[in-house]
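User: Teach me something about this protein's shape.
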Amino acid sequence: AVLTVNPNPTSNAGADQTVCQTKPSGPTVFNISGTAGFGTGVWSVVSSTAGAVTFGNANNAATTASVAGVGTVTLRYTVTSNQTPSCGEATDEVVLTVNPNPTADAGQDQVKCQTKPNGPTDFTLSGIAGNGTGVWSAVSANVTIVDGNIARVTGTGTATVRYTVTSNQTPSCGTASDDAVLTVNPNPTADAGQDQVKCQTKR
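Assistant: First, the predicted structure itself:
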């Protein structure tokens, strides 16, 4: 009698991956590569907090997975036995993570009259940082940043400040920046001229 022991299928979905979202707002494409042993493999989506997932070809071991948003996606690579009789299925899962990019909003441009008599003129800055930590810096030579969010402008005219947000994701998704223009208008001045002395007009 001949006794045959068929091998069980094996599945390897590859290593987990984490990337930054493709700018400006996705979708983000992952290259995935599964390994099927003693069977035929197919990809499927187990769960997603990042919106829709589209495969290049779910029947190919090496293919692409396009992820619509940010968050995590769990994919499963299922290998079905090609033996007779069948030895069932084997599965393995891979987690794909799409990190959000930082965003920066420096707020509205501002206009003020010069602080009397001759400045300097202070502006309170209010930036909005998304997915990171923000810091203000001076772009123009006539402005300095004081106490983190006060822009001190010397003289009159315009000055530009920049709000830069550095990613707090792992791995980092870099920086984003936005500029605001501060305008200092000159105060009005008045000069009535020299005092005058005259003799009374005669009649």
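Now, about its shape. The two ends are 152 Å apart (CA to CA). The chain is about 0% helix and 55% strand. If you'd like, I can walk through any region in more detail.
User: That's plenty for now, thanks!
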